[in-house]
Design brief:
The chain is α/β, with parallel strands linked by helices. The chain folds into two domains: 137 residues, FAD/NAD(P)-binding domain; 168 residues, 3-Layer(bba) Sandwich (FAD/NAD(P)-binding domain), CATH 3.50.50. The chain contains nine helices and 23 strands. It has a five-stranded parallel beta sheet with strand order 5-2-1-9-19, with helices on one face. The chain has a five-stranded parallel beta sheet with strand order 10-17-11-12-13. A three-stranded antiparallel beta sheet has the order 6-7-8, with no helix packed on it. Helix 1 runs parallel beside helix 3. The two termini are 27 Å apart. Bound molecules: flavin-adenine dinucleotide. Flavin-adenine dinucleotide binds next to helix 1, strand 2, helix 2, helix 6 and helix 8.
Length: 369
């Protein structure tokens, strides 16, 4: 009997579990290793911070899904992978062997790169402790006018700054977008729509990097100090450090290099999808949309490899739909290089996003039976 190890209960493995619930893997024992029993759906986290959702509404319980798929679920965290020995080392001292390994462990944030961040930063990853801590911060703030500084001008930083402003209207929220404007990776029309949305909600934008986090302040690269009671760190998507010693081929940034069949370019018995992987033939953004879409082809190729068939290539979509929430129930629509901006369709876009997100959660609840 082949041993198949699913490492990480991320967005791509949701699709694998629900596919296996439809068609179990014959001839294999499948194990899911995950530090958390539930997956928090990141697309709903800004809405959770804004107060539109409870944590429970944003979570998918992996246990019933794994049970429906005939997958054994183990609580634990990998700290090393020895690809040559086909073995994963766990934090609690156990080690797990495999014939086929599927990686969906996401990305991490480097806590050591910004002085003071370890002590004073509220990191958005892992998302589970962030969800706990943001609730405590909101409760602590109450009606007091706290200074909240969000570091990171990407989609997550943009949405979180607006979410905090909506949740705590008495607070002063600032966004540090680094060298460029917020949403710099998006087309100019989206950047402009983003700047308008931030200005409308009185969020101060600093096009600067943070040099240090201190108690009560963020020191900017220019030397200026911004008063700060809570620094939300939404910067950086980095590979887990343990990938470096795995023996797997990695991209220059240190993520697992995969080919068209989602197999590692160096170890065909290892497949990877989501943020942990970089497609050598088709590099694309690291986002939840790509991770979710990779789930069904990942499941199919695991099934084919177990059956001794050749895995099939998978072509990720060229464009993705992004609905960027703006704190209140309003969103900016982005489809590839095209954007509707916020007004006049912002409310409709939020309604649409809300339906998609709630539908996503409900789909996996149904798959769990
Ligand atoms: C606030 C926020 C909002 C976002 N909003 C969006 C959005 O609206 N749309 C979008 O497309 N993207 C969004 N993203 C990005 C999105 O979250 C990621 O791209 C997505 O989570 C990647 O999915 P994944 O399956 O690769 O990894 P993850 O969803 O991070 O899952 C990885 C899983 O692996 C587990 N894991 C990690 N390390 C180990 C280990 N060593 N051993 C075992 N298990 C491990 C983790 O606990 C986790 O459950 C957002 C991100 C943030 C922070």
């Amino acid at each position: 009997m082949k041993q198949v190890l699913l490492l990480g209960g991320g967005h791509a493995h949701l699709g694998v579990l629900s596919a296996l619930a439809q068609q179990p893997l014959a001839g294999a024992q499948v194990t899911l290793l995950t530090p958390y029993r539930e997956l928090t759906y990141s697309g709903m986290v800004p809405g959770l911070v804004a107060g539109h959702y409870s944590p429970e509404q944003c979570r998918i319980d992996l246990a019933p899904l794994a049970a429906a798929a005939g997958v054994q679920m183990l609580a634990g965290q990998a700290i090393a992978l020895h690809a040559a020995e086909r073995r994963v080392q766990l934090a609690d001292g156990r080690s797990l062997g495999y014939d086929l390994l599927s990686l969906d462990t996401g990305s991490v944030q480097n806590r050591g790169s910004l002085p003071g961040a370890r002590e004073h930063g509220l990191f958005v990853r892992p998302i589970e402790p962030f969800v706990e801590l943001q609730a405590r911060l909101a409760a602590m703030a109450g009606p007091r006018p706290l200074n909240v500084v969000v570091l990171g001008g990407g989609a997550a930083g943009f949405e979180l700054a607006l979410a905090w402003q909506h949740r705590l209207p008495a607070c002063r929220v600032a966004l540090l977008s680094g060298d460029g404007p917020p949403l710099a990776g998006y087309p100019p029309a989206v950047v402009q729509a983003g700047l308008r949305a931030l200005a409308r909600r009185r969020i101060t934008v600093f096009r600067e990097r943070a040099a240090e986090l201190q108690a009560g302040a963020v020191v900017l690269a220019s030397g200026a100090r911004v008063a700060c009671d809570a620094a939300v760190v939404a910067t950086g998507t980095e590979p887990a450090p343990w990938l470096a010693g795995s023996g797997l081929a990695l991209c220059p940034r240190g993520f697992v290099l995969t080919g068209p069949t989602l197999q590692s370019t160096s170890h065909p018995e290892v497949l990877a999808a989501g943020d942990v992987a970089t497609r050598a033939d088709h590099p694309h953004a690291k986002s939840g949309v790509y991770a979710v879409r990779a789930g069904p082809p990942l499941a199919l190729n695991l099934q084919r490899l177990v059956a001794g068939a050749a895995p099939l290539p998978y072509q990720p979509q060229a464009r993705t739909l992004n609905l960027l929430s703006c704190g209140e129930r309003s969103a900016i629509t982005v489809w590839g290089g095209f954007s509707l901006g916020e007004a006049p369709f912002g409310r409709l876009a939020w309604w649409w996003k809300d339906r998609i997100d709630r539908g996503f959660i409900a789909r996996f609840a149904r798959a769990a039976g």
